[in-house]
Amino acid sequence: MITRLQRWVWVGAWALAVVAGMINVAGILGFQHQPVTHLTGTTSMLAAASANLDLAAAAHFGAIIGCFFFGCVLSGYLVKESALKLGRRYGIALLLESLCLLIAVPLLSRHLSAGTYLLAAACGLQNAMASTYSGSVIRTTHVSGMFTDLGILAGHFLRGIPVDRRRVSLCSLIIFGFFLGGIVGALGFARWQSQVLLIPASGTALAAISYWGFVTAARRRIRDAPSLPRASPAETR
Less packed terminus of the chain by CB within 10 Å, N or C? Predict the structure, then answer.
């Protein structure tokens, strides 16, 4: 149960969901029509290609899965822990995601699969960055879990079981952000093609800079806060 949810978690989850929605739409509308923010469909396509002994397709889908996994590994190495906490290396992970998206743009414009692999790595980085808060799983690159949680909570409500309204709000926020990002991504792709990815690339870079500024300001407030006087031995008796 989420007992307290800081504002930066709400804003960050929504913004990253918007970014993921844009990336996934760009992948689907691109030359390979490949979703990249989650691996369920890609794993099924890998299985089908393997069953048909289509080695080229199997290698392609395997590379997407491997790059997504590599992004998760890199995020785990940088952030170290899965629990959300201010001050961890989210800024570095966001900046690396931005770099992956920037490099992917010219590759996708030339119809090179390496661009798709970079998108998958960027999504792996993002999805693994912050996965747990107050015992609740937070995912920003796909919404299956969010819809599942909402369904469970709806079932609890129908049975008269108390429902965590903050969890409902968080799931709804992430779903709306992903959907909104998809709309913006589709409209942008129709006009700019793969260059629409420059928008989420700029957004993640700006988020990294904003995060560093927020952390610096928070640490400064803690450092400058007056310390409480220690009690004398007589007062502790």
Answer: C
